[in-house]
Amino acid sequence: MEYHEQVEDVLATAKFGDLIQFSYPIGYSHWGVYDEDGFVIHFAVAEEGKLMNKVRTSLQAMFPVCGDLLLGSTKIRRMPLGEVTVPEGAHVSISNNGHALRATATEDMRRRRDGLLGKELTYKLLSLNCEHFATFIRYGKAVCNQIPAKAKNVECVEATKTFQEIVDSKETQETVKSKERQAKAHWKETDSIPHYP
């Protein structure tokens, strides 16, 4: 099946929170999470200037599968599934059964997604990678089963902690902003009430 047909097949059946696996010809996989309406959330290239773009292009030419990873800077992005850059010969599929974990509630997945979307992170192959991200969104635990000589289905506590701290920090900021808005609305109300001597 051609790659574009695989994308269409995934789009026809994927549900929010499904793990999307981009299997590369060399045996490595890139991972993302389906986010409805044809979009996927994944570790992607961070914003960069022209010079860095030239460096990245050169690395991708020398190392087609992992040129981006060698630079280390990634950003969690939401983009159309069909626009995720993959090397020739890659396959894409829904892959929810490769980890011995149970999916968490949809609202928990959305909360983690909202907390991490748009964040820039340093890519670390062994301790903070795309599979860690995708499994954290779905399961609440960061797991990577493609690191050689590492036990399968074992939580990477470092990655889980990093992701959870970001999510918690964003929730705290949103709570503070909400309380500030409520206080401003309250003071606005009390200022508009006529005061009689």
Automatic annotation (TrEMBL):
Q: Name one Pfam family in it.
A: LRAT
What PROSITE patterns does UniProt report for this protein, alphabetically?
Answer: LRAT
What are the BP-aspect GO terms? N-acylphosphatidylethanolamine metabolic process
Supply one GO molecular-function term. N-acyltransferase activity
Q: Which UniProt keywords apply?
A: Acyltransferase, Hydrolase, Lipid metabolism, Transferase
List, alphabetically, the GO terms of the cellular component aspect.
cytoplasm
Ranges for domain LRAT: 20-146
**Source superkingdom:** Eukaryota
- InterPro entries in alphabetical order: H-rev107_PLA/AT, LRAT_dom
Region of interest (Disordered), residue spans: 174-197
Protein family: Belongs to the H-rev107 family.
Q: What is this protein called?
A: Phospholipase A and acyltransferase 2-like
Origin species: Xyrichtys novacula (Pearly razorfish)
